[in-house]
Amino acid sequence: MPTTPSASIDASLKPLLWLVAMGLFMQTLDSTIVNTALPAMARSLSESPLKMQSVIIAYTLTTAMLMPASGWLADRFGTRKMFFAAIFLFTIGSLLCAESRSLTMLIASRVVQGVGGALLMPVGRLTVLRVVPREQFLPAMSFVTIPGLIGPLIGPTLGGWLVEAVSWHWIFLINIPVGVIGALVTLKVMPDVHAEDDSRFDWSGYLMLAFGMAAVSFSLDGLSELGFQHATVLVLLIFGLAALTAYWLHAGRVAGPLFPRTLFGIPSFSIGVLGNLFARIGSGGMPFLIPLLLQVSLGYTPLQAGLMMVPVAAAGMAAKPLGTWAIKRYGYRRMLSVNTVMVGLMMASFAVMTPNVPVWLRIVQLAIFGTFNSMQFTAMNTLTLKDLTGPLASAGNSMLSMVMMLSMSLGVAAAGALLTGFTDFTAGPEGRDTLAAFHKTFVCVGVMTCAAAWIFAQLSRFESTHVVKRPEMEVH
């Protein structure tokens, strides 16, 4: 009889693992549940549904900016205090989101929620790493990450159902009882683990990195929702790139940088993390674009739009073994070079989605996209981490987590900027042709993703096909 992932885990560890799993579920659910509710939020707040991407960007960008500091905060103040603070801030942020009466207040509340979300996953994973015996770590992380895979599967549908059954406010209110219970359980079962050493945190490097990420993301969002002038966008972009360049130079001369430059001396990591960043920009925009297209241009209800996202997540979960097989059969270079192009082509294929396309064909199209997208994530993550050892493994893992969240923010910002630009471009005497704007946006996003194949083509032809199973990175 096959053993379950939890078969070899001590019973005394189960409450802790359930707590960490719940935190991960809350974080991943909230990353997707908002997407199908954006048009309803826009109507309630008297905003355009095509200019609501900041609701998503505020959360993902805040999470990306704070992730590099999460490990130090847990080491400095203890895992129990930081996990409690994470749940508290996430819950308070959820309540503030539900009470928001303007888009500005909603965005600010999402920032508070993002601060909590940024700490939930890293602090929980760090606690498991330090408390669970080494021989039980793999089944423990498998146990913890399963709820994280369920969150994106049910998020869009649950969000659509709540919008229709009650109101969009409930996609945030459902977090409150879960958060209260989680906070109480944290005080009882979460160990208060501190770091053994008292190493200093690289605050100057962190500020350069955080400012650079925020400036680049705001420069993209400024082209659409924020309505910045082109001069402002250009200045933000230059300052952001300058800050990131300054961090690169800074990391080469200080003793304990956040992310040592030696990481990029490992070819698999440097190609993997850069490929992750650019390939995920397209993938990050799709959960924002697809539900919006279905509701704004094709007349779907929020629940129907949410149900249409189930094939993407379901096919993605089913395709994970296929991704591992493809890596072993063809190697990382061939697999990623081809699969990246396939993901881009599938994104561009949504440009032919019209009201006349049969529903069954849309479902097939979404499932095929989910399959290639999941294979892409599996290959990119394992490539990035497979050759890291010792202290570099922790730094590389943290950097990959940060890049994943940053690319989601950049993806939504880029998709929003393209959609706004094409909507204005298609404006005529009879109004704006939003469907044509969506079609052009999907083509551009697909082409951008295809371009990332050039990065993976730089891998050695003899790159190892060995796949390192790291279940903590299975959350996308």
From TrEMBL:
<dbReference type="Pfam" id="PF07690">
    <property type="entry name" value="MFS_1"/>
</dbReference>
<dbReference type="InterPro" id="IPR011701">
    <property type="entry name" value="MFS"/>
</dbReference>
<keyword id="KW-0472">Membrane</keyword>
<feature type="transmembrane region" description="Helical">
    <location>
        <begin position="226"/>
        <end position="250"/>
    </location>
</feature>
<feature type="transmembrane region" description="Helical">
    <location>
        <begin position="359"/>
        <end position="379"/>
    </location>
</feature>
<feature type="transmembrane region" description="Helical">
    <location>
        <begin position="303"/>
        <end position="323"/>
    </location>
</feature>
<dbReference type="InterPro" id="IPR020846">
    <property type="entry name" value="MFS_dom"/>
</dbReference>
<keyword id="KW-1133">Transmembrane helix</keyword>
<feature type="domain" description="Major facilitator superfamily (MFS) profile">
    <location>
        <begin position="16"/>
        <end position="464"/>
    </location>
</feature>
<dbReference type="GO" id="GO:0005886">
    <property type="term" value="C:plasma membrane"/>
</dbReference>
<protein>
    <submittedName>
        <fullName>Transport protein HsrA</fullName>
    </submittedName>
</protein>
<feature type="transmembrane region" description="Helical">
    <location>
        <begin position="80"/>
        <end position="98"/>
    </location>
</feature>
<feature type="transmembrane region" description="Helical">
    <location>
        <begin position="435"/>
        <end position="457"/>
    </location>
</feature>
<feature type="transmembrane region" description="Helical">
    <location>
        <begin position="335"/>
        <end position="353"/>
    </location>
</feature>
<feature type="transmembrane region" description="Helical">
    <location>
        <begin position="262"/>
        <end position="283"/>
    </location>
</feature>
<keyword id="KW-1003">Cell membrane</keyword>
<dbReference type="InterPro" id="IPR036259">
    <property type="entry name" value="MFS_trans_sf"/>
</dbReference>
<feature type="transmembrane region" description="Helical">
    <location>
        <begin position="137"/>
        <end position="155"/>
    </location>
</feature>
<feature type="transmembrane region" description="Helical">
    <location>
        <begin position="54"/>
        <end position="74"/>
    </location>
</feature>
<keyword id="KW-0812">Transmembrane</keyword>
<dbReference type="InterPro" id="IPR004638">
    <property type="entry name" value="EmrB-like"/>
</dbReference>
<feature type="transmembrane region" description="Helical">
    <location>
        <begin position="400"/>
        <end position="423"/>
    </location>
</feature>
<keyword id="KW-0813">Transport</keyword>
<feature type="transmembrane region" description="Helical">
    <location>
        <begin position="167"/>
        <end position="189"/>
    </location>
</feature>
<dbReference type="GO" id="GO:0022857">
    <property type="term" value="F:transmembrane transporter activity"/>
</dbReference>
<feature type="transmembrane region" description="Helical">
    <location>
        <begin position="201"/>
        <end position="220"/>
    </location>
</feature>
